[in-house]
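Practice problem: predict the structure.
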Amino acid sequence: MEFLKVDDVYHTYFTKKSAVTALSNITLDVAEGEFVSFLGPSGCGKTTLLSIIAGLITPTSGTAQLEGKKVGTIDNEIGYMLQQDYLFPWKTIEENILLGLKISHNLKKDKIDYARNLLEQIGLKNVDSLFPKQLSGGMRQRVALVRTLATEPKLLMLDEPFSALDYQTKLNLEDLVSNTLKAFNKTAILVTHDIGEAIAMSDRVFLFSPSPGHIHKTFHIPKELRELTPFQARNHESYSTIFQTIWKELESIEPEEQY
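Answer:
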């Protein structure tokens, strides 16, 4: 049984005057512990599919199942990390990372200790009593990651979590997130417009084509890249080859777009 299975998903947005099909015939599966990326031009339905998998949107037709169960039917199965950290500015860092546990009525000592240890493991020691405004953008995104991991979700959804950061911070966080997810054997889906990020972090890359959104092609990242950190992968000789391959496919999808 696949860990995550999306089967023949279609989704149409209806208004009083029109109907727009955002996704068509989406079928894919993701293995436990795998890291996959959804890559493609704007408007190809990547975030819509992410929302369907997260159980936030019910597809017009088709199904999404996690370990054989319909998504959205069990609490804390799926964690979501967005472009903005969305930390509450009036709450301390500790209060922010424990928010998910509080909402799910799971503020037990072992869970609290787990969250605090995560904060230290991710390089944020002695920041518990600080407020978000006292941290840099990269540090706040680390806090957001800890908040997501604290509820011990089986699947992580990463919706362009590094796009608002400066390039150096982005590269550092790519390594940090990748290493953290591997250490905890977490399954993750990344939505990104960044070809390099998708290659460096993923086991597989699903390239989406628009109008309506569908999977144009799937790329399997070579083993020699998957065994490296994202930063190291970007400097490997195989990286340039697959980058050029994906770039050409993107150009074939949107020939007038500049990537």
